[in-house]
Structure formats: C-alpha cells, structure tokens
Write a structure and sequence with these properties.
Blueprint lengths: L1 H26 L4 H26 L2 H6 L4 H10 L2 H11 E5 L14 E5 L11
Antiparallel strand pairs: 1-2
Helix pairs in contact: 1-2
C-alpha cells in the first residue's frame, strides 16, 4: 500500500511542478522556449510515474498476465481458481447487461456488452 501512495505522490508532485512552470510562463516569468524544454523533460516523467502507479494498483494476478502471449494467457487461465478468473475479468472488462424483453430467446450479444476498461487513471491528463 505504501508503494501505491508513494507512486501517487510522485505523480502529484510532477504534475504540480509542471503546473507551476506553466503558471510562470503565463505571467511572463518563464519564456515559451523554456516552457517547451521543461515540458519535454517533465511530460515523459509524468507518463512513466502514472504507468508505475497504475501497475502497482492492478491486482498481482492481473500484473502476472500483462504482456503474455495469448497462448500463455490461455494456459495460465486454465490453472487459475474461479475467484482469480473473476478478479481478472472485473479488473480488465466492463460488462453491461441490458434489459431483455419477454418473448423468444435472444442471442447474448443483443443484451450483453463487454468492453475493455480504461484502467486505473491516477488523475487528469497534463498533456
């Protein structure tokens, strides 16, 4: 938990630094050229810190399959307990159920939608 807090604090600190430099540019205390140089240095650091924070927040069972080939995922999936499979699905997928009118049976695709989740944003984008 402490690692997550530290990663979030790093993201917040970098964003605040960038915001301060942008404020200086707005008031004329920092040139546009200098702001461009500062952004070129800070934006990649912010992106890296955000990625680090997101990866720390993902459950370990999810982190273990990230970057694996489809075959490796399929093999690992077969070895997981149902609760672990559910955790992965809940973490990675947004599953929505729509009302189904009474009547004849309909294909699941008409009343179930599954989409990848936007994972674990640490805050507003600075780009």
């Amino acid at each position: 938990m402490r690692q997550i807090e530290e990663a979030d604090a790093e993201v917040k600190l970098l964003r605040q630094r960038l915001s301060e430099f942008r404020d200086q540019a707005i008031t004329g205390a920092l040139s546009a050229e200098s702001l461009v140089a500062v952004e070129a240095g800070l934006l990649p650091k912010i992106a890296h810190a955000e990625q680090q924070a997101r990866s720390l927040k993902a459950p370990s069972v999810v982190r273990d399959i990230v970057g694996a080939t489809p075959r490796e995922v399929a093999d690992a999936w077969a070895q997981l307990e149902l609760s672990q499979q559910r955790l992965i699905a809940e973490t990675l997928l947004d599953v929505r159920l729509k009302r189904v009118p009474r009547g004849p049976e309909r294909p699941a695709s008409e009343h179930v939608s599954v989409a990848p989740k936007r994972l674990l944003r640490t805050g507003p984008s600075t780009a």
